[in-house]
Design brief:
- With 129 residues, the chain is of the alpha+beta class.
- It folds into two domains: 70 residues; 45 residues, no CATH class.
- It has three helices and six strands.
- The strands form three sheets. It has a two-stranded antiparallel sheet with strand order 1-6.
- The longest helix is centred in the middle third of the chain and has 36 residues.
- It is flat and about 95 Å long.
Amino acid sequence: MIPATALSNPTGYLIGIGIKKIVETISDADSTTPISTLKEESLRAEIKAKALLAQAKVEQELAISRRIDSAEEVEIEEFYDTSGKGNAGLSTDGESISLGLGGEGRRVTKRIIKFKGCTPTIQPQTTDA
């Protein structure tokens, strides 16, 4: 029997199964398992998780676009992520020395999408003669 979670959020369900399996693999390793093997498994898990996350984002965008196509009214409000970088520098000018430091800042994205109504689909009518 398929769990309800798998039907409502299949990507999340698959990610959960993958992570659970990797945790079990690492937990089942005995004390003689080399750290390099555990690090390799951890790296593999991280790569798989990133790939699944990217796939989930694509599926989410496709689902949103399908819903936009079928909605009578759509309201979208998005704020994009803005990031800054840090730096450090040292410069000399003759006999003077100056040191500069910079920081990093980040703003979280806010996304609101509202759908109202559903455009009816037109079904062709067939007549029996």
